[in-house]
Specification:
- The complex is a heterotrimer.
- By secondary structure, chain A is mostly helical.
- Chain A has helices spanning 12-47, 51-86, 88-121, 128-157, 161-166, 176-180, 185-209, 217-229, 232-248, 251-263, 271-295, 303-327, 347-353, 355-358, 382-398, 411-414, 420-432, 450-465, 471-476; strands at 331-333, 337-338.
- Chain A has two domains: 12-338; 351-476, Orthogonal Bundle (Cytochrome Bc1 Complex, Chain D, domain 2).
- Helices cover 69% and strands 1% of the residues of chain A.
- Chain A has a two-stranded antiparallel sheet with strand order 1-2.
- Chain B has helices spanning 17-29, 31-40, 53-73, 82-92, 96-123, 132-154, 159-168, 170-173, 179-187, 194-226, 232-235, 247-272, 298-310, 314-337, 345-370; strands at 42-45, 243-246.
- In chain B, strands 1-2 form a two-stranded antiparallel sheet.
- Chain C has two helices and ten strands, in the order ααββββββββββ.
- A six-stranded antiparallel β-sheet of chain C has the order 1-10-9-4-3-2, with no helix packed on it. Chain C has a four-stranded antiparallel β-sheet with strand order 5-6-7-8, with no helix packed on it.
- In chain C, a hairpin with a 5-residue loop joins strand 3 and strand 4.
- The chains are: A mainly alpha, B mainly alpha, C alpha+beta.
Chain lengths: 481, 373, 163
């Protein structure tokens, strides 16, 4: 491993975060929405004196506590490991700003877990009224943890003008609340809360699907239909909130969507737009599928169909989170830190003094161990090897955050068919980062001295065309061991 | 739009335009009779019901193939310009990338659905009397589907298509006696050239559909005639414990739901992972590393390779081919062997043979991919 | 949605007033979903089939562009202009010759740039290189040369027209 530049073959380090995060989102949104579902269903059952409902809700509570308490909590910690490995610079920025925020979240999290345990294990022993109150305490704390984490998530897209004005001065934490209640905070909070509510319905449908329609036909009909209703609010309000959200996103990021819309016919530069379209389609399908298979055929709603709904919800959530991440391009912290961990303010310094010279992590003295696919070793002279090694360090530092060699966004295919001159020209385009460059809206500028960029060119040339360029190295580094 | 499935005349509701149009058509075509028939028909409902959907899913992907294929025909030019025309479709024509991507992904999903359908029919023993012809026509459809896949894969004529076709044709070429002769006819010469594209194109868009569609109609007619088969575990239950749902509207709407999900999966794959177009095929260039046939030919390819390695010379390949030809023949004739409707020794052997075949396919495919490195 | 008592699908078909409202609501919903799907499939298909017509419309109507004052263009530099709706470039070479090309890269339709110091026309998107004299594609991914136009230098203006 080459921490902090983590080389994950084929899928890239970003997808390690992505996979864990999508799994976590599927469960954490349930943990919040389910927090409302349980006491509301319980209250309804008590009000109507329905023992069979209470039994079914209790089963659901067990499913709920196992899923959220085990997998939700574990995957949440998993995200910490993954972002620390894949993106140390931005993780550090977030911790420095929001350590207090996370402390608050942790308190709510502990109360939440305790309340969930008391709620489930106290089902038979606690008086009904107290039990219901515990349920509502759980719901409140679960939602509060969303309230906190939403501030940090939205900060990454829109840090807000006042925080940005302090960025890099060491005074950032003075703007904690401005950063926290940033421009996209409220639309995102409402959107996520709505998604939580529909997730509660999706998972409740799983429990309801397992009821035996022959033994308890009435209970099955009622519970399936009541759970299906939980999907309704979000489907009516999400489109409206989405417009609100987009209106709060800075113009430059909206331009990304527009670029996608205007070029979708050609299929280039359109990943955000394509992912967003998929969200619309899968959401519409969930609605249609739940209506026809659950609402109209409640009695025949079996586990297979419930899993279909869950699968569709997964597809919609994954695409939505993916497009939200893509919308942040080329930054990981909006207008502050590029997606490869380079701060916007550092660009000029790095261009002047050198990227490798300023990097805390990438040391030319300790060159990378492996140069995949590059003809290397005994066949080249030490000077060439050192140059290629510097090129690979540039590659690791500036490209690897988003690209892999052969897998996801593969450099080998993207640069396929280019000779050395053409690679150099392309790197020049990235380095200049001209206002009209189509790459500007997606990719960070390439930083470094001309010498470093030459080294990267040599490395990529060796990687793509599998031949080592000798002339240039001997010329630039005479006698360099 | 009227949402109820049975627009019966309802005195309390004013007759809508939809109802009027429906009545007009019904009086002339007898839709109500068809609906009555569909309503009377039932589909068994049990723990293996999930596998009933895969035939319908295969059909859905076939429809997508016809639709997207016709759209591709609008711009595709076989022969010398094949690559250029696919390049235009992918990069110049608006949404051409999406339509080509949908066609390629749907092809793969269709092969997958057909395989799942075949194995589920096999393990539910749905080939037994009176459904033998369903099994055989299904086998024919599977073979044609694979031929569709093979012939279509070459048409873009990029380097992967070219070399995969070249490698893929080694399978029939290894057939004893007729191998070379047959492959030369298919290829239109000793090498894969523009002539080959022209032939594959004719095969892909004219000859195969002409054979496929009548067999498909026959297959669907048989399904309608005999209904869904019960798996042995359900058949063992007394009549009173078996459950079923009406075909219309219940099963039909669920089938549509599955189609909708399939459409979603297809759209996600086609739009987020668009099918790539490699550089133009250059017969003189060295084959790209790790060249291999498509995944659905991988196990056959690997069997051949392994036997060639174990028994050097033509004998090994001939042995490999004979072996899996034999396996296919046995597979096709299984309804004649496993005839008893209750359990028994033959039924058990057939099931084990099924596991053996499935496991063999999976193992050889994985081995094939590992063997590329 | 009101907390309506759960009904079986059969009972639902009885037409009470609330049911009619629900019926309309659901009919609207199903209709909207259907329209959503039809749009998502229909729009790309329409655009796909309409491409040649769109291209013809974009290029067919305009056959000539008049560039006032362009005859003063210094040798060794280029002038970007619109030919119809598409970008185009007029180059005045140092040897005194004039050429004009469509500035749309034949690879993925990015706008190309004239780089006199390198003596080439360059596409920044994917590194395509064209010959600045003939428009021929000389390096990189472009499959075809740039579209070439006729140039007529007149007094006080330059006339660029289709071949």
């Amino acid at each position: 491993m080459n921490y902090p530049f983590w080389d994950v073959p084929l899928i890239g380090s970003g997808w390690i975060i992505g996979l864990i995060a999508i799994f976590h989102v599927m469960i954490s949104h349930f943990a919040v929405g389910g927090g409302f579902y349980l006491p509301m269903a319980e209250a309804k059952a008590i009000r109507e004196g329905r023992e069979d409902w209470l039994r079914a809700i209790r089963d659901h509570a067990r499913f709920f506590i196992i899923l959220t308490g085990v997998f939700g909590a574990m995957s949440g910690v998993g995200i910490w490991f993954a972002i620390g490995l894949a993106h140390p610079e931005s993780t550090s920025t977030l911790i420095h700003n929001f350590v207090f925020g996370w402390a608050i979240e942790w308190v709510f999290f502990i109360v939440e877990l305790t309340a969930a345990a008391v709620y489930y294990y106290g089902w038979d022993t606690l008086p009904r009224r107290i039990h219901l109150i515990v349920g509502w305490i759980y719901a409140f704390c679960a939602w509060m943890s969303l309230v906190i984490i939403n501030g940090i998530l939205t900060f990454m897209l829109t840090p807000g003008a006042s925080w940005l004005s302090a960025a890099g001065t060491g005074q950032e934490t003075a703007y904690f609340w401005q950063a926290f209640f940033n421009p996209t905070y409220f639309p995102s909070l409402v959107l996520r809360t709505l998604v939580c509510i529909s997730m509660a319905g999706v998972y409740a449908l799983i429990t309801a699907s397992r009821l035996d329609p022959l033994a308890e036909p009435q209970l099955k009909d009622e519970l399936v239909r009541w759970s299906a209703k939980w999907l309704v609010p979000s489907f009516i309000l999400v489109p409206i909130c989405f417009v609100w959200y987009l209106a709060s996103v800075p113009e430059s990021q909206r331009a990304l969507l527009n670029l996608g819309i205007s070029t979708i016919g050609q299929g280039t530069f359109t990943q955000v737009t394509r992912a967003a379209t998929v969200v619309v389609m899968t959401s519409a399908t969930i609605l249609a599928f739940v209506y026809f298979s659950a609402w109209r055929n409640a009695r025949h709603f079996n586990l297979g169909r419930a899993l279909c709904v869950l699968f569709l919800a997964f597809a919609a959530t994954a695409s939505a989170e993916h497009s939200r991440e893509m919308l942040r391009k080329p930054f990981v912290v909006g207008e502050h830190m590029y997606s490869n961990g380079i701060r916007k303010q550092e660009v000029e310094k790095f261009n002047r003094e050198g990227y490798l010279a300023n990097s805390v992590w990438l040391k030319a003295a300790a060159p990378p161990v492996s140069l995949r696919r590059v003809a290397f070793g005994d066949t080249v002279e030490p000077a060439v090897a050192a140059d290629l090694a510097r090129g690979e360090l540039m590659f690791r530092g500036q490209c690897l955050a988003c690209h892999t060699v052969d897998g996801y966004r593969p450099i080998a295919r993207l640069l396929q068919g280019r000779d050395r001159q053409s690679i150099a020209a392309f790197l020049k385009t990235l380095h200049e980062n001209a206002p009209d460059s189509p790459y500007r809206s997606y990719m960070p500028p390439l930083v470094g001295t001309p010498d470093e960029i030459e080294a990267l060119t040599d490395y990529l040339d060796a990687l793509i065309n599998r031949k080592v360029h000798h002339g240039h190295v001997a010329q630039v580094h005479p006698g360099n061991p | 739009m009227d949402v109820s499935w049975s627009p019966k005349p309802d005195a309390r509701r004013p007759r809508s335009l939809t109802a009027a149009v429906y009545t007009w058509v019904d009086e002339r075509l007898g839709l109500e009779e068809l609906l009555a028939l569909a309503r009377k028909k039932t589909v068994p409902d049990h723990q293996y019901s999930f596998w009933y959907y895969w035939g319908g899913l295969s059909l859905f992907f076939f429809f997508v193939q016809v639709f997207s294929g016709v759209l591709l025909l609008v711009y595709y030019r076989p022969g010398a310009e094949a690559y250029e025309s696919v390049r235009e479709i992918t990069y110049d024509i608006r949404f051409g990338w999406l339509i080509r991507s949908a066609h390629s992904w749907s092809a793969n999903l269709m092969v997958l659905a057909v395989f799942v359908h075949m194995f589920s029919v096999y393990f539910m023993k749905a080939y037994r009397k009176p459904r033998e012809f369903g099994w055989w026509s299904g086998m024919a459809l599977l073979a044609l589907t694979l031929l569709f896949g093979f012939s279509g894969y070459l048409l873009p004529m990029d380097d992967l298509a070219y070399f995969a076709t070249k490698v893929g044709l080694e399978i029939p070429a290894a057939l004893p006696l007729v191998g070379t002769l047959m492959t030369d006819i298919v290829r239109g010469g000793p090498e894969v050239t523009e002539t080959t594209i022209q032939r594959f194109f004719a095969l892909h868009v004219v000859i195969l559909p002409l054979i496929y569609i009548p067999i498909l109609a026959f297959h669907l007619w048989l399904v309608q005639k005999h209904g869904n088969a019960l798996p042995p575990s359900e058949e063992a239950k007394p009549e009173s414990e078996r459950r079923s749902i009406p075909f219309f509207p219940d099963f039909f709407s669920l089938d549509l739901g599955m189609w909708l999900i399939a459409l979603n999966v297809l759209s996600i794959l086609a739009s987020l992972y668009p099918w790539q177009l490699g550089p133009q095929a250059d017969p003189l260039a060295p084959a790209p590393v790790g060249i291999h046939p498509e995944w659905y030919f991988m196990s056959q390819f690997q069997v051949l390779k392994v036997f060639g390695r174990w028994f050097p010379g033509a004998a090994g390949e001939a042995l490999g081919i004979s072996l899996f030809t034999l396996a296919i023949v046995v597979w096709a004739l299984i309804p004649l062997y496993d005839t008893r409707s209750a359990g028994g020794r033959r039924a058990q052997i057939a099931t084990y043979f099924g596991y053996f075949a499935l496991l063999g396919m999976i193992v050889f495919s994985i081995w094939g991919y590992l063997d590329l490195k | 949605m009101p907390n309506a008592p759960a009904t079986s699908p059969l009972a639902e078909q009885a037409s009470t007033p609330t049911d009619t409202t629900r019926r309309t609501f659901i009919a609207l919903g199903v209709g909207a979903l259907g329209a959503c799907y039809a749009g998502l499939i229909g729009y790309p298909v329409y655009q796909y089939l309409a491409t040649p017509a769109r291209k013809a419309a974009a290029t067919g109507t305009v056959t000539q562009a008049v560039l006032d004052g362009a005859d003063q263009l210094p040798a060794g530099s280029a002038l970007m202009f619109k030919f119809g709706t598409a970008p185009a470039m007029l180059i005045h070479h140092t040897d005194g010759s004039w050429v004009a090309f469509g500035a749309v890269c034949t690879h993925l339709a990015c706008t190309v740039n004239y780089e006199p110091e390198q003596s080439r026309i360059y596409c920044a998107c994917h590194g395509g290189v064209y010959d600045p004299k003939t428009g021929a594609n000389v390096a990189g991914p472009p499959p075809k040369p740039l579209t070439r136009y006729y140039v007529e230098v007149q007094d006080g203006r330059v006339l660029v027209s289709k071949a």
